[in-house]
Amino acid sequence: MRRAMHIALYVLGALVAVFLIFLLTAVITDYRPAEREVLQDRSSISTANLSAAGLNNTLPDSLSILCWNIGYGGLGDDMDFFYDGGTQVRTSRERTQANIDGIIAEIRRHSPDIILLQEVDECSRRTYRINEVEMLREAFPDYHIFLGYNYRSFFVPIPLKAPMGRVASGVVLMSRVAPEEVVRWQYPSRFPWPVSMFNLKRCLLTATFRLADGSSLVIGNTHNTAYDTGGMRTAETRWLGELTARLASEGTHFIIGGDWNQFPPDYTPSAAETDDPHFTTVALDTALLQGTGRIAWDPSARTLRHLNVPYGPESVLTVTDYFYISPDVRTDCVRTIDLSYRYSDHQPVLLRCRL
């Protein structure tokens, strides 16, 4: 009896030690981004190459911008997801690679001037450590590419039976024209500790471009909180409204695109969209944006499917992907590209506009 108790205490002590080591490692390696961080170009384009090609850093008057949450190449039409009421953690390596190849081919087909991507993995277990940023760099050698991390954890311990493990992921902004500056802005929203060590740190990427008339255009890439724990999306929208109000007061044009994880104005969700206990989307509170711009979205199509089941006739579809544009930017069209969610749980959205 005494021997059994000693063994039990030893095992318990070992488990406690392992847990404390894990927690200490999580604290030491916790991603703590600065409020403002200037990003470096990850492309192979050099200033010398630009000069030799006779190119300049001025944006054209007419622009095409593609916005797409690519679901890290792991959320194609075959997937449900454990966090959203499904059962799966990741798809196969072969399907992940096929999804990424399909995403790249689709972007090539439209050849946009600006590309705004969300959920791009750099080295994550869920995508078999495929470096998607490097794949984009190689696939689009004429584009400048910038990555802003919003998810870095040495080990995500859920689900317990098959943990996600290491995650390194973020939002990517790509452009044919070299921006003057690209900044990662940390949103003020925070998950409580210790959850924050294993969850996303949401951010906005902004790229500043010079226009032919000497004015500036700021293009932003946003990916807002999905699983709100109390006012996080509100804090992000309020912060974004303050930023765009400041830009407007300076006479700077702006276009903010991304996955807002909120309904656009004048969108009426179904009961299935609002009653999902695992993934709840709310309406964007446009009052927090201070009236400095307008929302541009495609009312004829949906952009996101819920991940409680693989894609099919029973899938719940909604709209969370769109643009927020300053009044002086003229919109020619906003079109959701229907891919039947083959490569991602989101559909790409293409904006054509004039400055």
UniProtKB/TrEMBL annotation:
State the Gene Ontology terms under molecular function: endonuclease activity
Question: What is the source species?
Answer: Candidatus Coprenecus avistercoris
Pfam families per the UniProt record, alphabetical: Exo_endo_phos
SUPFAM superfamilies in UniProt: DNase I-like
Q: Keywords on this record?
A: Endonuclease, Hydrolase, Membrane, Nuclease, Transmembrane, Transmembrane helix
Lineage summary: Bacteria, Pseudomonadati, Bacteroidota, Bacteroidia, Bacteroidales
Q: Which residues are in the Endonuclease/exonuclease/phosphatase domain? A: 68-346
Tell me what this protein is called. Endonuclease/exonuclease/phosphatase family protein
Q: Does the keyword Hydrolase apply?
A: yes
The transmembrane residues are 7-28
